[in-house]
Amino acid sequence: MSEDKESFNPFDPTGMFKEMRDTNIDAWAKMMGKAVQTDVYAESTGRMLDAWLSSSTPVRKMLDKSMSQALANLKMPSSDDITRLAERLTNIEMRLDDLDAKLDTFLSKLSDGRSE
Amino acid sequence: MNDTQNGQVEIPSFSDISEGWHDLARNTQTFNRLLNTDASIAQTPKELIWTLNKAKLYRYVPVRPREERHATPLLLVFAIMNRPHVLDLRPGHSFAEYMLDKGYDLYLLDWGEPGPEDKNLDFDDYTLEYLPRVIRKLKAVSGSNEFSILGWCLGALISTLYASLRPDDGLRNLILLTAPLDFSDKKSSGFIRWTSDPNFKPESIVEAFGNVPGEMIDSGAKMLKPIENFIGTYTMLWDNIESTKRTDAWHAMNTWVRDIIPMAGAAYQQLINEFYKENKLVEGRLKIRGERVDLSRLTANLFNVIAESDHITPPCQSEGIMDLVGSEDKELFRVRGGHIGIMAGSGAEKNTWPHLDGWLAPRSQQTGEG
After folding, report:
1. Which domains does chain B have, with CATH numbers?
2. Nearest CA to CA, how far is B362 from chain A (Å)?
């Protein structure tokens, strides 16, 4: 809402604070930009991430294991089974792509031979 | 409630108040719509010509007759952790549309969204398994043995690896945009300070999630400029809420930003360890599928574009390779702007795209080998 700075519009919620905001936002941006590029920030973020992952990963693994066990008991495929199947499909797709390329080369040579 | 000329405050009429509430309600509705809906992006007509796993190769439908087109086709290779739609943001402001109009036979590689089965994909796979197949198809469809590549961000990294490992494969021109290649300055801005900390362990992230969640990558990128990304972008939208031109541009960009995808776990781990931490590429120690990547073998014509205010790939990460590559025809080009802004911002059409075309067009003419 590009209001004239001189005027005050009570129906523009950000307009009431616009001048203050415009004055300060650049300073905040610079300050925060510098803060996240300090070694202290890098270290604390790394530590927090590490702590979160090392505490949550065992729980997640336990849940995955029990889910896989439950699905196996129900004779149903687990996400790992589906993942393995998808990997095999990708491999088949690659072999098909190779065959496609060889066929292209063969047809191209055949057509070159005919034109000669 | 405006000040009158003699300094007295004028009391607003009932109709002024009513109109004000009406405007506020309408603007709030527009604001919510722009935040929570998707704009129509990537609208330039293209046809799918090849797929492998999640990767897709598209050919944009040419708008110029064959005799007016450049002889050398151009392949666009974007990063692996974002959608490539930013190259074709919206009608009237699309790099793809612009290059088609300039007569290029244009191809786009979309790496796709990796699933759990793709967690072991790494740069070796992207460089020597996927890209050569894409190029094989591009050559077959275009009928040209020579081609150009424009790689952006990690797409530029993959393109550089490919250009160094397969210099005789027909790559004539290589355009790199904001390419993260040289990580020798561990104190520069961007992610490098965070990834250099010993507490930052990509292995733990990959072990926990398989692929790195898109939300994690997105938050990390936004935290590099927290005020701008979490506050500034929304205040700017509100300030311009009555300008359709500006809100349309914001909406398109926000649609692209919101469409986040995960990054293959092995590629992420390799990026952090072998590139960011160990700087193997520039130091000549990087091996892809057992082959050492020697930048001096990169002999294609090179146009290396740097965004001067890039906070994701600071200029020092791109500049260093100019002395290492074997290209005789090479140029470093600086553009004012940020990582994405130089190609998708409002000034891209004047400040970046014409320079890319200006460099590439004379190098895309017919040669004996084409």
Report:
1. 46-363 (3.40.50.1820)
2. 30
